[in-house]
Amino acid sequence: MRHHRDWSDSSSGERQRGGELHKARYKRGWSGNSSWNTSRAHSTSSRYHLGHVDIIAVKKDCSVNHQIIEVRELLQTFLQFKYLLYSRRQIMDPDSFKDYAKEMAEYITNYLENIRDRKVLPTVEPGYMKPLLPSEAPQTPEQWQDIMADIERVIMPGVTHWHSPKFHAYFPTAQSYPSILADMLSGAIACIGFTWIASPACTELEVIVLDWLGKMLNLPKEFLACSGGKGGGVIQGTASEATLVALLGAKAKKIQQVKEQHPDWTENEIISKLVAYCSCQAHSSVERAGLLGGVKFRQLEVDEKYKLRGDTFAEAIRKDREQGFIPFYAVATLGTTVNCAFDRLDEMGIVANREDIWLHVDAAYAGSSFICPEFRYLMKGIELADSFNFNPHKWMLVNFDCSAMWLKDPTYVINAFNVDPLYLKHDMQGSAPDYRHWQIPLGRRFRSLKLWFVLRLYGVENLQKFIRSHVAQAHEFEALVLSDPRFEIVGEVLMGLVCFRLKGSNELNETLLKRINGAGNIHLVPSKIKDTYFLRLAICSRFSESKDIQYSWKEIKLRANEILDEQSLSK
Ligand SMILES: Cc1ncc(COP(=O)(O)O)c(C=O)c1O
């Protein structure tokens, strides 16, 4: 690894150019403030070097004064030329941008197409980067090539390669060439589409592609803008934001309802009685939404397949009502992070509708699979939900961030967030969504371009093939695990995630994981349910194939053999 650059040696391009000018000045004997040294002005000819430019001052057969004036003019022209050249070099001009964009595309494709050859986990220690970079930003522009060189020198040693087929941690994060290109365009348009008028295309494309996507998932028409009802979709940054936005909408709705029944109750009194529900396996962002929304959240027990069932939900509501609480919101998880279990949305939906509770569906990872009809049985009951969210940025080849959310009736969300300063008002209000009211921040990028490019350049069929290939690879890995009697599977394999463990203690499995990640050839994270520790293998990369599954299984078996051999030797 190369080390800290010595900034005193003026290694930046501008410092070099500065050095050349200084040398030229010295040669010409110019003190730098027009006090031309006449004794040196008699020199026969001089040559200034500045990049590709040579300026030759030729000795003229005339008086010294005339010569001084002429040389001054020449110098002025030279300085003007130098300034022009200098400023062109500082700011990336269009031709340079085109060249550099090609160079970057070359770098990106090389990186991605050869990602398998890189070590998936970096070996750096915390603080590795500090000695590699100067402590202050450069005063003058640097060269593009220096930055490009620093990608391998400074950045890549500290990158965890999420798109390597050897990366099996968490859930996938999506990535594809069409999406990267759309991100480029979004970066170029660089609008902030908080209202329709702030950039009509930004809002209108979002409405349309979310209808496309909703139809691909076969969402009930009440969620779609094209149905002509109140419903519609919006792109949030993350599933966490979607859960919070839905909670705040539900909270606003319930407060309004209760106020109508009990006009004497204060808002604080009502809020203190509000209670929300989710499974004990729900993502931490659900609990966090409760904290941010200032309401109680009950985490309910699951059945033997790790699903939250309708009767458990109904019983919790009954108990809370008895104690004077006001149930107002519930989250059903389709594809839990822990082990990709699916709550019984159909059963929860019946209870939620009967009890007038807003039901939000968090399908952050698994939601992408619903573009394939064969997986839709897992979203049975979707017509009973009030809001639904999944992350195309997890498993549908759209780069982060793109979290698709649909609401049957966004009115309460819109009202909950509606602050209307004069500078954000416009004449077209009400004719199209002003997405600022559907989300927490004001600003929003042109994210729908990513979806639009991916949907058009892949087509639904190829996206379905992609999902199916990951599920097939998960089953291939499951079969390998089951073929070895020392291992067991935890839970059901339904999507691209396999949970497994060595039969034996939690400590044994903790050692196995440490050994696997320590070797750094593949990367996995653990999980735990009811004191049972296990390993999670997620199929993450769009480059992943059967040979990668075989490689990962070989690596896991090798580490398991090492541990079990050591154990039997120590006995
Ligand atoms: C089920 C579930 N919900 C929510 C989240 C949070 O997603 P985000 O990072 O988009 O907020 C995750 C992340 O993996 C998840 O698996």
From TrEMBL:
Residues 1-23 have a biased composition (Basic and acidic residues). PROSITE patterns: DDC_GAD_HDC_YDC. Keywords: Catecholamine biosynthesis, Decarboxylase, Lyase, Pyridoxal phosphate. The modification N6-(pyridoxal phosphate)lysine is found at K394. The keyword NAD does not apply. Pfam families: Pyridoxal_deC. One of its GO terms (biological process) is amino acid metabolic process. Its cofactor is pyridoxal 5'-phosphate. GO terms for cellular component: cytoplasm. It is an enzyme of class 4 (lyase). It comes from the Eukaryota. The keyword Lyase applies. Residues 1-24 are annotated as: Disordered. Homodimer. Belongs to the group II decarboxylase family. This is Aromatic-L-amino-acid decarboxylase. It comes from Acromyrmex echinatior (Panamanian leafcutter ant).
